[in-house]
């Protein structure tokens, strides 16, 4: 088993392909929004805050950066114009799918 060889390959992929995920909180925000979308229950900003991923200020700042980069998409809620729904952009979903495939492949080779 080459544990650190596999971990190094995963980190190299993350740095090269996922530079927008700078911190664990960034990663958590994207995963939680994507999971809610996958469950066909797009997340609101309030729901994201209620997950207590970090302070509201930190989540708000990191989310604003992810929206600015086009990773997260904010759109108006159809039933409640005061609320916004958060989703992950299609290109980011595709990239994260590639990431999962890479992690699976590396795991198969190195983490037996």
List the helices and strands and how they pair.
Elements: H1 3-17, H2 24-38, E1 43-44, H3 45-50, H4 56-68, E2 72-76, E3 84-88, H5 90-110
Antiparallel strand pairs: 1-3, 2-3
Can you describe this structure?
It is a single chain. The protein is mainly alpha-helical and 112 residues long. Helix content is 62%, strand content 11%. The protein has 5 helices and 3 strands. It has a 3-stranded antiparallel beta sheet. Helix 1 runs antiparallel to helix 5 (90-110). The protein is elongated, with a radius of gyration of 16 Å. The model has no long low-confidence stretch (mean pLDDT 91).
Summarize the structure.
With 112 residues, the protein is mainly α. Helix content is 62%, strand content 11%.
Q: Element order, helices and strands?
A: HHEHHEEH
Q: Gyration radius, to the nearest Å?
A: 16 Å
Stretches where pLDDT is under 50 for at least 5 consecutive residues are none
Assembly state of the chains shown = single chain
Please describe the structure with a list of short key phrases separated by commas or semicolons.
about 110 residues; mainly alpha; 3-stranded antiparallel sheet; about 60% helix; about 10% strand
